[in-house]
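Posting this for the archive.
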Amino acid sequence: MQWNEATATKRLESLKMADLPVMPINPRTVSVSPDWFQKYKELCRTFVRSLSDSVQELALMNLSREEFMGLLTGREIPDNLSIRFRVPLIWGGELSINNLFMCYTFPLSQNLDRFIIEQSGNDTVWLPNPKRKIYLPIHSTLAGNGGNAVADRLSQMSANISAKGRQ
């Protein structure tokens, strides 16, 4: 069944990602350079080092100080985080930071795979296109009655990083 934007949005709602924007593409198979994976690994290192402008989103991910610093320095991507293509290379996507985003592997990345596979064979495929470099569903970013979780987490991380620098 060919999807339209409303169908795609409704399916994302059922996957608990109603706030995730989508974009339509007409998938066309293109050849991918044999050295794509090596280039992709280097691009991922560059991408994670560029996350310094996404500290608020990172603060909501409850990473340990070691995971946070390892991620920002490009040393290591913490468990349960995935870097995804907005448009897959095989469908004409580019090896560029603008074509990447990060999200939790479980359940988000797995659900996004399911979302795309369900559209297999369609002339138009709706792909996830988050506004930022890191996608967190809105329900996971809201502060509860206890205060501003983002500000609290950023203050805690800042204090930890400062203390580490004085040692």
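Residues 149-166 form the longest helix (18 residues). The chain is about 40% helix and 10% strand.
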